[in-house]
Amino acid sequence: MAIPRDADDVCQILADAANTGTPLEVVGRGTKRGLGRPMQTASSLDLSGLTGVSLYEPEELVMTAAAGTPLAEIERTLAEKNQRLAFEPMDLGPIYGEPENAASIGGVFAANLSGPGRLRHGAARDHLLGFKAVNGRGEFFKSGSRVVKNVTGYDLSKVICGSHGTLAAMTEVTFKVMPAPEKTRTVLIFGLDDVRATEAMSAALGSPHEVIAAAHLPASIAARSSVSYVSGAGRGVTAIRVEGPAPSAEHRCKALREELARFGATEELHGMNSAKLWREIRDARPFIGDPRPLWRLSVAPTEGPKVIARIARALQGEWFYDWGGGLVWLALPVSDDAGTRIVRGAIEGGHATLIRADASARAAVSVFQPQPGPLAALAKRVKEGFDPGGILNPGRMD
Predict the structure, then answer these.
(1) 328-384: per-residue pLDDT in tens?
(2) Angle at Cα 57 formed by Cα 56 and Cα 59, nearest 5°?
(3) Which sequence spans correspond to the domains of the chain?
(4) Alpha-carbon distance 131 to 150, whole Å?
(5) Fold identical between 183-282 and 285-364?
(6) pLDDT tens column, 56-69
(7) N or C of the chain: less Cβ packing under 10 Å?
């Protein structure tokens, strides 16, 4: 294992690996090792030694940090100035049995992790302003800057986000931050099935009340919540979140309850309980400690219940919806292929990622949605441009 102290060390390590053709696992703090296909690598490049916030300008809403800096440290620093990462990066570690709050900020962007806030504020890649990295030749390069409107050259931030360490080893990231809301309120609607819940979420999102997030938990999932209003409902719970200045949040919450009353009985959660519920949704906590394969489906919001219905005809599973129905978390029975054939056959125009399964299942199937021929060819050329020797996380995204 190589643990570099700075970017120069990363350059030297990767140049040596390129010269000898030595494949390396690129890892931040190791919380997402279970994501992707198993890799056969001779050693690992551990970036956890690259830590520290080098620039933070709260008034400019920008921060720069070394890629190995713990996400928890970033969030504590922002909280001191009443700011946050508005895309709400999920803590994926516990899904794989890793400790909570152990991820790195570089890993967040490498995996393009976004939570419920993505619906309103965009994905992680939309918040990455620039980065510094080392490619598979051992060459240092940088892209973007701390200026939000910088559009000079190629926008490599969009390429590097979601590349899972297969293109380059990031050493530093610069990203946007946002003010934290003064108040958060969540409207709960009880007793809806998937189809009716999707209609309610669509109505809320189409309203003028600036809804930030919308999710639906079927009864078996709601029962596992730590929020008593949710776990004690004994039926499905649909959640609609608003936030902002106190008078505005309270007014919009009241208006939403009135408008959504036609769907069923409603209740509202205030700050602490709202935060608990949306953390559970963000981190897919109902499926932590669960041995079943876990899928993350991205579909058109109105298609979610149809996709689930097609899958449920063949396999018994559990699921819940985020992003207004556009994101479905789905746990299926243990099998040799983790239900891949059924899941991929049920999706039309979306994509499915196998987030968790045992190594044999991940080795047997495509963990990430297979790309159409022209797009796969383009991705191959991009990979060869950054990492011609194929030494960075080889096979992880195959």
Answers:
(1) 999 999 999 999 999 999 998 899 999 999 999 999 999 999 999 999 999 999 999
(2) 150
(3) 7-179, 183-282, 285-364
(4) 13
(5) yes
(6) 999 999 999 999 99
(7) N
Q: What is the pLDDT of residues 203-241, one digit of tens each?
A: 999 999 999 999 999 999 999 999 999 999 999 999 999
pLDDT digits (tens, 9 = 90+) for 155-193: 899 999 999 999 999 999 999 999 999 999 999 999 999
Q: Which residue has the tokens 């990979």?
A: 383
Q: Are 75 and 14 in contact (CB under 8 A)?
A: no
Percent of the chain with pLDDT over 90: 94
Rama region for 333: left / alpha / beta (φ>0; ψ in -120 to 50; rest): beta
Cα Rg of the chain, angstroms: 21
- Cβ contacts of 216-220, under 8 Å, gap ≥ 24: 216/192, 216/320, 216/321, 216/325, 217/281, 217/286, 217/320, 217/321, 218/194, 218/318, 218/319, 218/320, 220/318
In our burial notation (b when 16+ CB lie closer than 10 A, e otherwise), range 236-260 reads bbbbbbbbbeeebbbebbeebbebb
Q: pLDDT tens digits, residue range 26-42?
A: 999 999 999 999 998 98
CA–CA separation, 266 and 204 (whole Å): 13
Give the relative orientation of helices 304-312 and 194-205 as an angle to the nearest 10 degrees: 160
**What is residue 318's three-state secondary structure?**
strand
The CATH code of domain 7-179 reads 3.30.465.10
* Multiple choice CATH, 183-282, 3.90.1720.10, 3.40.50.1240, 3.40.1190.20, 3.30.70.2190: 3.30.70.2190
At the top level of CATH, which class does the domain 285-364 belong to? alpha beta
Helix (H, G, I), strand (E, B) or coil at 187: strand
Q: Are 389 and 364 in contact (CB under 8 A)?
A: no
Burial string for 316-344 (b: 16+ CB within 10 Å, else e) reads: ebbbbbbbbbbbbbbbbeeeebbbbebbb
Reported as a single tens digit per residue, the pLDDT across 120-140 is 999 999 999 999 999 999 999
Those residues whose C-beta lies under 8 Å from the C-beta of residue 375, and which sit 6 or more positions away, are none
